[in-house]
Amino acid sequence: MSFVPYREARRRQKRQPLDRAQVVRAAIALLDEAGLDDLTMRGLAEKLGVKAASLYRHVRNKDDLLILLADEISGEVPIIEPRGSWKEQLAEMAHNFRRGLLAHRDAARLLATTAPFGPKRLRHIESVLRVLRSAGLNGRDAARTAYHLNNFVTEFVADEGRFAQAASSLGTTTRKMLADARKQFAALPKDQYPTVVELAPHLAEDDAEGLFQFGFEIWIRAIEQLSRVPRTALDETPACPRR
Fold first, then answer.
1. 48 and 168 housed in the same domain
2. Tell me, what's the pLDDT at 6?
3. Residue 172's CB: how many other CB atoms inside 10 A?
4. Looking at per-residue confidence, does 7 or 55 come out higher?
């Protein structure tokens, strides 16, 4: 008679089916860890513990994934309530969006390089356009202002990210790097760059909050000026045909 040792039967852990929401959450985590340049479908598959082919059941390609990521990050930014003056609403939007972009590595670059097709992102666009129209801008001016205002916020945050990454690669801090830049400006030949030397203490300023607020206030003044000037005729003027 043969003897077979008793072995306790082990139940296999049942793998939870992968869905699009899991893919997007994992991709955001990978974005924060590795950055936009190193966000790959293969790396994402490894993070999820699946084969890369499995991802294509949920996203068509990397471009599709990036649009989903941009939309998800936009969804983390709260939509403001339509109360208070248009200036207060616009200020809340701008500061909220900056904070939302700063919450994730390379988020500003991501939004700058993807089309705004997601529903969460479109809700923010709708909100901005509504506020600009309530400020008295005509349709074309509101659309153009929204475009440039978006560029102001995203590029400002992208610049913050570039400074932080440059400082990290040099083994220093942004504060020290900016201080060194001011010293270099101050040390330039005064006969060749008198204004640069004079304003050296204000160049490469270590006050991101103040710098952002200053830029935003310039936008507010420009919008106020646009709202005072009747530009209805421009709203209806067709664009010049290209030659």
1. no
2. 44
3. 13
4. 55
CA separation, residue 1 to residues 4, 6, 37, 238 (Å)? 10, 15, 64, 97
Tell me if 193 is assigned to some domain.
yes
Query: What is the extent of the structural domain holding 30?
Result: 18-59
Q: With respect to residue 151, please indicate whether it lies within any of the assigned structural domains.
A: yes
How far is C-alpha 78 from the chain's CA centre?
A: 14
Under a CB-based contact definition with an 8 Å cutoff, are residues 86 and 131 in contact? yes
Confidence of residue 230 (pLDDT cuts 50, 70, 90): low
The structural domain count of the chain equals: 2
Confidence of residue 233 (pLDDT cuts 50, 70, 90): very low
Handedness of CA 29, 96, 216, 226 (dihedral sign): positive
**Where do the H-state alpha helices sit in 39-138?**
41-48, 52-55, 62-75, 86-102, 107-112, 119-134
CA atoms within 13 A on the CB side of 198: 5
pLDDT higher than threshold 80 for residue 46: yes
How many separate helices (H) and strands (E) can be counted in the chain?
12, 0
Over the stretch 185-215, which tens digit does the pLDDT of each residue have? 999 999 999 999 999 999 999 999 999 999 9
Instruction: Judge contact between 124 and 74, C-beta under 8 A.
Output: yes
Report, in this order, helix, strand and coil percent for the chain, each rounded to 5: 65, 0, 35
